[in-house]
Design goal:
CATH topology of one domain: Multidrug-efflux Transporter Regulator, Chain: A, Domain 2
Number of strands: 3
Helix content: 55-70%
Structural class: mainly alpha
Number of helices: 6
Distance between the termini: 70 Å
Strand content: 5-15%
Shape: elongated
Length: about 150
């Protein structure tokens, strides 16, 4: 079935299918101004120019990389502006990369702390009564994930 109409426009459903978004996402991106407003058929149904597909593909990849809506908005704007320099896109990506790297450090610290909790439980109390489990005790006492877990016997 050809999803392109005679006038070169795609229905919202066809556009959603082509770009991998659901229809509600397209409505949202239109509402927040990431894509131009759809034209309306006499029936009231939204239709989009085929060029919107390129913008939605860019939005899809931005979101896949974890860019915020505002970062995505800036990148979409840059993608259509001959007056702006690509250094702006690089700067947006650099700020996002720095945030991802900081989050990665936090996640690695969390991983080490959780591994210590599991190791302490395995070494000291596994198989014993749950209320004496080092993991549950440390969590109920509010032990910081950066602190060393305590032994069941300690």
């Amino acid at each position: 079935m050809n999803t392109l109409s005679i006038d070169g426009q795609l229905s919202i459903g066809a556009m959603a299918q082509r770009t991998g978004f659901n229809v509600s996402a397209l409505r949202y991106y239109e509402e927040v101004g990431l894509i131009p407003p759809a034209t309306r058929r006499p029936s009231g149904h939204r239709v989009y120019d085929e060029k919107v597909q390129e913008v939605l593909t860019l939005i899809r990849h931005c979101r896949d990389f974890g860019f915020s809506i505002e970062e995505t908005r800036a990148l979409v704007s840059l993608s259509t502006s001959d007056e702006k320099d690509c250094v702006e896109a690089r700067d947006i990506a650099q700020v996002h990369l720095s945030a991802v790297q900081a989050k990665l450090i936090q996640l690695q610290e969390l991983e080490r702390s959780l591994a210590k909790f599991v190791q302490a439980c395995s070494a000291d109390c596994i198989g014993g009564p749950a209320p004496k489990c080092t993991i549950l005790r440390d969590l109920s006492l509010g032990t910081s994930v950066k602190a060393e877990p305590r032994s069941c016997c300690g």
